Amino acid sequence: MYNSEGYKWANAGLEYVNDTSAHAVEFVGIHVVSNAVINTIVGSNVTGNTIAAASQTLPTGMFLPISGTSITLTSGKVLLVKKVS
To answer: pTM of this prediction?
Structure first.
């Protein structure tokens, strides 16, 4: 996968999240592996739990190009695309 500037995604790897623990990792995208609900998300282009406030189920296969530093799920499974340092 490449972003709009031609940089290849996932050069820094992926982190699999399938629990309700907080995961502190810098990421630039979220790929939904199994229907997921985000409880909280922290990042530069999100405010607190903006996504969680909607309480929406993110469908399997959805990709969110969003930067963050921490995420906690309510349910589901996601792959975080780690940010290249």
So the answer is: 0.80
CA–CA distance, 13 with 52 (Å, rounded to integer):
25
Q: Residue 43 sits in a domain of what CATH number? A: 2.60.120
pLDDT confidence of residue 65: 85
Count of domains observed in the chain: 1
Q: Which residues contact 38 (CB under 8 A, 6 or more apart)?
A: 49, 51, 52, 58, 71, 72, 73, 74
Find the domain containing 24 and state its range: 14-82
* 36 sits in which H/E element: strand 23-42
How far apart CA 20 and CA 6 sit, in angstroms, is 33
pLDDT digits (tens, 9 = 90+) for 23-69: 999 998 899 999 999 888 887 666 555 555 457 899 999 998 888 89
Closest C-alpha to 69, from 22, 18, 27, 32: 27
